[in-house]
Every structure is written in C-alpha cells, then in structure tokens.
Design a protein that fits this description.
10 helices
C-alpha cells in the first residue's frame, strides 16, 4: 500500500491507494466490523462474509488478523493524524482572541474530526487500551507533535492571561480530551442520548463550560 499519500480520511486513502479491489473490500469490511464488534469480537470468517472474499483471499493480502488491524490503523496515525494535527495547531490561535473562544474552537474542531473518522477512531480508542503496538504508534505521534503544541497552543493559551497558575498543558489537554472522547463514545458507540445536531450542539456547549471552569482563574 502507498504510505505517503495525502488523504482527507481513511476512506479516501482506501479509494486512492493502488491496491486490488479484493484487498480494498477486505479493508472496508474489517473497518466496519472492528468498529461495531471490536477486534477480538470479529473473526476472519465474518470479515470474509462481509467483504464477499474468501478467508484464503484475506490471508493472501494480510497474513494475520493483527497485520490487517495495523493496515487500518497505521495510515491514520502516520498520515491522517499528522496532517489534521498540523492544520489544527496552526488554526487554534488564528480562531481565538480569548480562552473561551480557543476552547470553543478546539472542542468543535476535534469533535468534527472524531465524527468524520468515526469507525477508525472507535477502533483506535479500543486498541490503545490493550495493544502495545498501537500504543507505541500513538505515543510516537504525541511526541512528534508535543513541541508544536507547546510553542503554539500552550503559548496562545498562556497569552490570554486567563489560565490557572497551577496547571500545565497536559492537564488542559487531558481535561478536554477526557470529556470529548467520553461524549463521543457515549453517542456514537453506546448510542446514549440524541445525536441530533441541536442536542450535540447543546452538549458541546456544556463541555466547553466545564472545561473553562476547570482551567481558568
């Protein structure tokens, strides 16, 4: 597969990468089933049935189910996340003049990202808890972007003069991420509460208020 292609989401990558249609069908089926049932809860027989391919064909392209999982996750972490991450970091300070506006932009932008990449995000979240290789890929991405976060986002937040003096960037990111990811899982995986646009907007407003209270003076 092409690893350095620039793409807007995983589906775009699958569509535009040079690969046999059978391989493309297997990837689509695996993404759907891994997101719905979990990696451990999905068998290659189920992937074969969903994709219309034989298990022999699956193992022709991916020698193990674990290799298939990494073929889904790796392009996201190595291509999609860095692309989105760089644009996000550059846009934070451009869209904000105070801490409230900055938090608003971060929460709305990141929630849009989660929804746009719902299936693969659900897979990554579940595998980060149990898969050491996925954890390592995630940590490499975080370490690669850490200095940019500090020099752009953290600096912009500090310059508002509204942050608490006893917190650091990790605390801010953890506060935002924990609430945002929990709400994402609640609505997209557990199907708790309405996912109508108006209800989501209200819930994101509540998250923003909670974050501001937690990090501001």
């Amino acid at each position: 597969m092409t690893e350095d292609i620039v793409f807007k989401d995983l589906n775009d990558w699958i569509e535009n990468s040079q690969m046999p249609n059978g391989k493309r069908n297997v990837l689509r089926a695996a993404i759907k089933l891994f997101a719905e049932q979990g990696y451990d809860g999905t068998s290659t027989a189920q992937i074969a049935q969903e994709s219309g391919m034989s298990q022999a064909t699956i193992f022709k392209y991916f020698k193990t189910k674990d290799i298939l999982l990494k073929a889904i996750i790796k392009p996201v972490i190595t291509n999609l996340l860095p692309s989105y991450g760089s644009k996000f970091i550059a846009n934070v300070s451009n869209h904000s003049t105070n801490l409230k506006q900055m938090v608003h932009f971060i929460i709305r932008d990141r929630f849009d990202f989660l929804i746009s990449n719902k299936s693969v995000v659900l897979i990554i979240i579940s595998e980060l808890l149990v898969n050491d290789d996925v954890k390592e890929m995630g940590m490499n991405f975080v370490n690669d972007k850490k200095e940019q976060f500090i020099s752009v986002i953290w600096k912009a937040m500090q310059e508002t003069g509204e942050l608490r003096d006893d917190i650091d960037l990790l605390y801010v990111l953890r506060t935002i991420a924990s609430q945002l990811i929990f709400y994402f899982i609640q609505t997209q995986k557990l199907m708790i509460n309405s996912t109508s646009e108006s209800n989501i907007d209200k819930e994101l407003d509540r998250i923003e208020v909670g974050v501001i209270k937690a990090i501001s003076k």
